[in-house]
Amino acid sequence: MAASLIAEARLLLSVFKLRIGVAIMLCTLAGAAASPGAGIDPAAMAVLALAVLLSSCAAGAFNQYAERGLDAQMSRTRSRPFVTGRYSDAWHWPAAILALLLVAVTAAAVAANALAALFVFLGAFTYGVVYTLWLKRRTWLNIVIGGLAGSFAVLAGASAVDPALAPAPVVLAVVLFLWTPPHFWSLAFAFDGDYRRARVPMLPVVVGGPAAARVILAHTAVLVALSLAPFFLGLGWLYLAGALTGGALFLRGSLRLVRDPGRASAMANFHASLAHLGLLLLGVLADAAFRGH
């Protein structure tokens, strides 16, 4: 009984893309930590972080619900519960997802302010509607514009501290915007056959593997260079150490992908991008803790 309950909980959490939600929540905490000032009440910050987590989970669930037909065509996603029929496509799913989003936005408004709530909504809307419904099947720019979802999470945290938005968290939001495309293009490179069969115009499908690898490398180089800017805008040495270490890992992976444009190199670069993001966010939070922010 316990094992079946655990399995069911894991299945449900996979629908809501909990791991992505946690990463988005950390982006919100980093946005607040990167903002100068006294910060906000810890309890209010916890509520805002939970609101961002819930909104991200709502967007993730809507993505799986809306793309159940597309997911059935791809080996990476064909075992998702909306595809297998484990979960039905009944009306209660979109209703529950919408209710979850409304709770999240309302909680953000109460805990922080209206601007933070707007950013929470825009993050979920960008991923759930702009990326999933409007762009994914139409243009290779899908994930470029979809990358705004993570940026809005950073801005939600920053606006909770100061609605005027200081330069450091704004640049950090741009860094998150630039991080998403090479991160996801690396995954799309590894599964380009899936995207090709499903006729989803991800960059590796549109321009081919070698050309996509060069774009990923160039994009990563610009991203890493910009990620150093917050150090000159007030963040400390702990942030710089995380940005340099993570950036070096991502650049090395991207260079390897150019030299050896294959699935193994693409997956290695995908994991390097995750390490880069983790070290960036850890650097922001560690720096804030060291400064007593």
Give the count of structural domains.
1
What level of helicity do the residues show? over 70%
Radius of gyration: 19 Å
Unreliable stretches covering 5 or more consecutive residues: none
- How many H/I helical runs? 16
Shape: globular
Structural class: mainly alpha
Q: Note the main sheet.
A: none
Q: How far apart lie the N and C ends?
A: 46 Å
Instruction: Compute the number of strand runs.
Output: 0
Beta-strand percent range: under 5%
Topology record:
Layout lengths: L1 H14 L2 H16 L8 H25 L1 H4 L9 H4 L7 H20 L2 H22 L6 H5 L1 H14 L5 H24 L1 H7 L4 H5 L1 H19 L1 H4 L4 H23 L3 H29 L2
Essential attributes:
293 residues, mainly alpha, 80% helix, 0% strand, globular
